[in-house]
Backbone:
């Protein structure tokens, strides 16, 4: 009975608030591109005719709307491990909430089966502990969603042939390994890597798997990371501009040859870096 009363009063409150604001707020035009994203994809939400400051959440998590030409745009990242299904997208403008449902579709990523000598895949307890420590250090970065540094579209930090795409699932000696949540770009030792957008240097590390590693914080929860570098040319906390040379290609860490492993996190979600540079955000 008590629950029912709470429900009734909630419905009444929602009715009241829509009555109070419904008259003044014009229904905005909401565009979702693509309409049905898959895991690892990025969706752009465009709100046109917004009566004021636009805010929103996707699956209960804050998304960031930025003013663009006569509209507000937000990047919604669908993490690689998202289960297909329906997710709530709530957009609030001056107290009115507009509810949308996003259908995340199934996306098949390639499966690679490899057989390698044991010594190449089995880590010593010491190396394993080190790799875990390094992973924890990285994972501690993503929840920090600072104010926006990025501006305009993201650019490619190292154009070149992609030798390992995003999302490939590897099964080595019959054991499923963590999927490839970045892209590998062919390069020569010493090739210049540029900042894909304005950022602050969040982390410089020397890792068991990633070798010389660099993470840039673009703000609003957007991070880009670069591994196997021969040289890092920036310092922790340094402000970098889009197009600045930040590091050089190498083969440090677990790498069979010189290449760049480039990864992206958007509000913690692992997405295909190519999705980020294909976005039209201006
Ligand atoms: Zn890689």
Residues:
């Amino acid at each position: 009975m008590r629950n029912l009363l709470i429900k009734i009063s909630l419905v009444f409150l929602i009715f009241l608030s829509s009555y109070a604001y419904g008259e003044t707020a014009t229904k905005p035009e909401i565009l979702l591109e693509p309409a049905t994203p898959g895991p690892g994809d990025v969706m752009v939400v465009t709100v046109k005719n917004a009566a004021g400051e636009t805010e929103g959440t996707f699956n209960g998590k804050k998304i960031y709307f930025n003013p663009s030409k006569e509209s507000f745009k937000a990047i919604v990242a669908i993490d690689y491990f998202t289960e297909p299904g329906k997710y709530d997208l709530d957009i609030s403008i001056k107290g009115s909430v507009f509810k949308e449902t996003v259908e995340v579709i199934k996306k098949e990523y390639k499966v690679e089966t490899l057989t390698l000598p044991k010594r190449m895949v089995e880590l010593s307890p010491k190396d394993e502990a080190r790799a875990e420590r390094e992973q924890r250090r990285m994972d501690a970065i993503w929840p920090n969603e600072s104010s926006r540094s990025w501006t305009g579209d993201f650019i490619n930090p190292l154009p070149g042939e992609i030798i390992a795409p995003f999302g490939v699932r590897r099964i080595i000696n019959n054991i499923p390994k963590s999927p490839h949540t970045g892209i590998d770009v062919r390069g020569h030792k010493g090739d210049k890597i540029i900042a894909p957008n304005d950022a602050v240097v969040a982390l410089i590390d020397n890792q068991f798997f990633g070798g010389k590693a660099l993470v840039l914080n673009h703000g609003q929860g957007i991070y880009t990371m670069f591994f196997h570098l021969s040289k890092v040319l920036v310092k922790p906390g340094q402000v970098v501009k889009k197009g600045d040379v930040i590091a050089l290609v190498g083969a440090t860490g677990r790498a069979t040859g010189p290449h760049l492993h480039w990864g992206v996190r958007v509000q913690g979600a692992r997405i295909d870096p190519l999705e980020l540079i294909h976005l039209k955000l201006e």
